[in-house]
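Saturday, quiet lab. Running sequence design on the structure tokens for the scaffold JK sent over.
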């Protein structure tokens, strides 16, 4: 069973159709699957001392990876919403509580994103 945690519909006025989710039987590290059409990539959130320090990309077996532009946009999105993603992960996998899917239709604040990129690889 997969839990669609976020549907990211718009970014800079383009409909990107990126779907962020995790499966109900996941494992560490904290990560999200991101799907667009028939392509899917896994993004690992590497956290050190409560700070997101790196986002690693890996292939999902049997799936083509997202295109490079979609990967870049996804990394920006994960960086911007990392706290929310981690909270949903913890709520579901640690606290064993239900999480609700959300739709995000607003642009990412580029100034805040620049500040968040300072500590990330």
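Result came back. Writing it out in full:
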């Amino acid at each position: 069973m997969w839990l669609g945690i976020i549907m990211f519909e718009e970014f800079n006025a383009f409909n990107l159709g990126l779907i962020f989710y995790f499966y109900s039987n996941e494992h560490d590290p904290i990560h999200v699957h991101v799907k667009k059409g028939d392509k899917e990539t896994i993004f690992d959130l590497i956290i050190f001392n409560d700070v997101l320090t790196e986002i690693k990309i890996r292939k999902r077996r049997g799936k083509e990876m997202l295109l490079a532009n979609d990967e870049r946009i996804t990394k920006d999105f994960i960086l911007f919403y990392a706290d929310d993603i981690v909270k949903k992960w913890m709520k579901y996998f640690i606290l064993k509580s239900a999480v609700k899917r959300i739709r995000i239709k607003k642009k990412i604040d580029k100034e805040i994103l620049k500040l968040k990129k300072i500590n990330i690889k």
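Notes for JK: The beta strands are 2-11, 14-23, 31-36, 39-48, 51-59, 102-104. The first helix runs from residue 68 to 94. Ask whether to fix the surface positions before the next round.
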